[in-house]
Amino acid sequence: MIRTAARTAAFFLLAAPVAMAQVTPPKPAPPGAEPATPTAHSLEAADLEAFFDGIVPLQLERNDIAGATVLVMKDGQTLLRKGYGYVDVDHKTPVDPEVSAFRLASISKLFTWVSVMQLVEQHKLDLDVDVNTYLDFQIRPAFDKPITLRNLMTHTAGFEEVVRELLFTNPKDKVSLRQFLIDNQPNRLFPPGVIPGYSNYGVGLGGYIVERVSSQPFEQYVRDHIFTPLGMTHSGFEEPLPAQLEPSNGYRGTDKKPVGFEIFLPAPAGGVSSSAADMGRFALALLNGGELNGHRILQPETLAAMWTPQFRASAALPPICMGFYETWRNGLHFIGHDGDLLAFHSRFLLQPQKKLVLFVSYNSRGSESKVRSEILRLFADRYFPSTDKPAFITLSPNEAKEYAGTYIPTRRADSTKLALFSLGQSVVGVDKDGVLTVDTSKDPRGHTNKWKPIGKDLWQQINDQSKLFFIRDASGRIVRAAGDFAGAQSQRVPFWEEAKFVYVCLGCSFFILILAVLPGFSRFIRRMVFRKRPPMQPQPGTIYLSGGPGYASAAWLLVAGIAFSISKYFDSDSVIGPTPAFDKYFVLQNIFTVIAIFFSLWAVFSAVAAWLRDLRITTKIKFSLVAIACIYLVFFAIHYNILGPAHRY
User: Fold this and answer.
1) Is the separation of the CB atoms in 301 and 467 below 8 Å?
2) Whole-number Å distance between alpha carbons of 1 and 229
3) CATH C-level class of 11-27+39-324+336-383
4) Residue-wise pLDDT tens digits, 156-185
5) What CA dihedral angle connects 521, 525, 528 and 533, to 10 degrees?
6) Tell me, what DSSP letter sits at residue 290?
7) What φ, ψ does residue 481 adopt, rounded to 5°?
8) Which class does domain 397-493 fall in?
9) Could you tell me if 348 and 104 are in contact, meaning their C-beta atoms sit under 8 angstroms apart?
């Protein structure tokens, strides 16, 4: 939900401490010689500790992170389990990987789907029937096709994004899982099973179905059927977490106060807290066919089904499986999940063929996705290097330009107050040399990534392994793009929804309205300050922009000010996430938008009337420009739900 600008750093700053601790720098290759084949380091405890000791403290310092917890396992053996930094900065309490419980956010989903599959094994659930079968409220019909548990597990239910009541720190704001799901049921953007759109709400439904079928609160079910059998004594879905489980603080920065315990709704999608040691027990059970120390949480065939690819745009891209998704690097197909809150950012990966576990979690805002991605990249390149080189192909200029355009995520909302965020778009361009760029995709140094084609509609990053696949409709037109995360795609937008076009239209509209209100404001000042000065009279055939045009101009400027203030308030450090307490601000926005629309109709009527009167052409154009600006703003307010239900966001 929460993203900040990417931190930047040169690769050599990360690699140098490890290199100095472990190896002698290689001699440079002679000019024109082929680069040396990378040599894999031995995956052993001493090398791993030196490697992470060189990287993680640097990450903490560079990105203003309070603490991190790390776990690496191989063939059932723990090679590294270590804490870095602090769980409590003020008291200098160090991270203890055995007991320090970090908030793992979306890694929670794995526990939810394991719970679902336990009930499938007991024939209490069917993955392919309408989820309404298991609910005591109804998911509204859409697209003449029901949603199934399999759709929920693969994020292909088609739900819009929901953030109301998603994240907060005051326990008094918490509602039951059932109430959350009823109050915040989203509309659907896509038919089930067709287009992925990552959905916390969908996972919340899965967790509530576990509650309904098991007759246990979700938190208690997971404790009884996963945590206790596996000996995960420092894990829980309780929000807030009991003090005896030693939860880590979360931070925006090490010089700021803790943000408080981030309560996430729906809890099945992001509420778990766990230690590195406990996550190791969970990993061992998964890699051992669902059993640990004689306690079984899943049958081997069930786990195999969960790890079977279910959905992806292309065989060249990592798939999403049943709850798990794959992450690829250097020919290794890891399976697992990432997790993000405001302060906590985590990654839990398994490599079943090599019996490998990689888990890392950070407790500060500065550790967003690029930091944990950096860990995987450097880890895989050090211990499992690859010499594979992509075979780039050449496209004609006409073929290449097909891919250029503006795209928005399929994880979005079109019918709520969040629709405005669809203006956060990615622009794909292709230069004269056939190199493709995405303006929102940057490398760790902040440079724009570049791709070249390697197959039909398939592109690969020039200096790395990331891929893009472009999806065509039945007519052959490119409509979407898919990347390395199978849980969401990007959808092409028509020109009139492109952010640059919208911003130009908004800018012109508000420029016209500002010019429209300035003369009236000037006359008001003259009357109030220079009371003896006679009022200025317009030239014959000229009339002031009073009445509807004037009021409409002022009203729209006021609406813009309210919308800007709301967005700044939501983005402030004092706010964790939007709760129902924010509804009143949207009510206020709706009221003034209705007023602005009313005066806009008056402004349009005034423009028509101006053309029917004997007025100067400049006066007629003036009224017409204000009317056109108002018409566009009315369209914008309705299309992007500036005017819309105040409780839907």
Assistant:
1) no
2) 33
3) alpha beta
4) 999 999 999 999 999 999 999 999 999 999
5) -120
6) S
7) -130, 145
8) mainly beta
9) yes
